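Model the whole thing, not chain by chain.
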Amino acid sequence: MKKHTKDNQEVSGAEALILSLLDENVSTVFGYPGGAIMPVYDALYDYTGQLNHYLVRHEQGATHAAQGYSRVSGKPGVVFATSGPGATNLITGIADAQIDSTPIVCITGQVASHLLGTDAFQETDVVGISMPVTKWNIQVTKAEDIAPAIAKAFYIATSGRPGPVLVDITKDAQFGKTIYNYKKCESIRSYFPSAKVKEGDIKKAAAIINAATRPFILCGHGVLLSGAEKELLAVAEKGKIPVASTLLGLSAFPPDHFLYAGYLGMHGNYGPNLLTNSCDVLIAIGMRFDDRVTGNLEKYAKQAKVIHFEIDPSEVNKIVPTDVAIIGDAKESMQAILPLIEHKYHSAWIEKFKYCDAIEHDKVIKHAIQPNTKNILMSEVIHKLNKLTEGKAVVVTDVGQHQMVTSRYYKCKLPNHFVTSGGLGTMGFGLPAAIGAKVAMPTKQVIAVLGDGGFQMTIQELGTIMQSNIAVKILILNNNFLGMVRQWQQLFFDRRYSFTEMKNPDFITIAKGYGIQGKKVTERNALQNGLSEMLNSKESFLLEVVVENEENVFPMVTTGSSVSEIILE
Amino acid sequence: MKTTYTISIFTEDRIGLLNRITIIFTRRHINIESITASVSEVKSIYRYTIVVNVTKDLVEKLVGQIDKQIEVLKAFYHQSPEIVSREIALYKVSGDALKENELFTRTIKENHATILSVSSEYIVVEKTGEEPEISRLFNELEKFGMLEFARSGKVAITKPMKTLNTYLKEIENNSTKTIKHFNYN
């Protein structure tokens, strides 16, 4: 159903922008007004019923909220910001969205076109600045060019390998008049978002997989982006192939499935890291061999044939040389290969993973979830949270130790219910991303799991929660340290804790100042109740759990080590 | 092993695209040896010729990342046997060279260079050729007193007969017709 009746009418460029968003089925915008985008905000004033605008407290928050919104809903997130500082404040979020393939459309105001290049008030070359971190960007200087630019922006952001785009609109273009007529973009002659899956490549890959005795699947974000969870499950079950997940692939494969091998990477599970160097065929699906996954490349899966399913041709052979590359959408690829996969058992191979799991449980997990330490551990908090929510909440993390602990101990059962900053590792991501996720899924339990450091990087977004009544739950795991850096200082810098200790404010009082209920838990016996109270709250709720200062996250693949040299303690 | 590669990039006519392309080199700390931009045989499509000295593995990665830019139609890389290439160089030599007229004229002739402009103060010489020939002439003219020197980047034509349009057709036929948008809800 059309949300407006302005087709073929003369409107301002600013209104054309709003109408274009409606024609792209946008219902939500995160933004912050300012001088150069005022005509857009003025036009928005007439459409507040159709377009929900969430006023953030800092433009970075708008980008992360748009990312959180996109990651759980599959729809592109939309951001408004003004020129100059408004635009530069977007850059961290855009860079995060670029490296984590998240579709967001950022719209920035710009000084009038006759002032471009003159160092006008709040002028900055945001097209130049954002170039290395956007999938595409453009500056629009005429009202009639706005609708086509928006159409292109949405098409590019959401197709192929998704990513962030930025449309910079000069103030005169916003004021200018144009006849509104929206045409959705359906192709660009120089852009080929996705290749057809080649039958020959599928056959080659299937032959290698069928001949394997120790096949191993690495499942990445691409599986979620293409909605290939069921297809992947079918392939894995038919060929009895163990499946491990990257950080951004978490939630794509059921964590309680007998073929689930665990979480890959620096602080991942023991089995999938160790056995990467024992498999005979490594099947990477929608992942890009990040260095946090591969460890030392010289000693990474050298024994294995590598099959790479990937939508972005430039990722093939970028890090790990492949034997067969299947370029295309993960879902189509899985559908194509499923009939060719032979029924297998691989019992002894699967048993190896179970054996590793038992070792990890005995050496690490057991102590992490039921510790006999004096202080509460982060891992037991997340373990309890997982039990209380049955792994069905939307969990959004920040970056650092709590993120790794959450990735390890929260067993996310539903696809796209786990949101985290992977490639860029952006502290401050968690709270605004959780706001975006909650806006996209208002009936879901959405929990931001944050460290005391990262929380304070975007703490001002409590104001957004207050103003728009966003019932996001905030769980602070407070160790009064920048924990991950401290862990590295302890292990690799001779315990020289250089500027990692945090003197923190009273978080509960701060929450109270924003009208958000809060509770602080310091004793183990109060933890369960504290978590329940947070989860049962109908409103936003901040739970601060004071945890052990010097807890380390293990296992660990230390820098320069091979994945098979993973240490357990 | 590092080799000289000539990268040919066909693009839409878009402000800022050159910046997007050069970023791919600078972030990997690769020096561009020369770069030229011009129109191509296809109307409204531009052609960049970039020369770099890198390994094969690296040139493949660079071309992959260039190709990925939305407004790049296609990027190729070639080694010198697969292309015909030329550079143009201009040399401004001191007018004193005329005092050794015979030697100077012979140098110009042997190097297949041309004299573009002569005055009592200077002589401007033009030479078109490959990089070593241009350097050799520079060395030979230096003794007459070199006042100024400028060299264009390399322009290149590839020997394989496949045209840009054929490549584009192939990619198009290989693309999924129904563009799948990221949308699972």
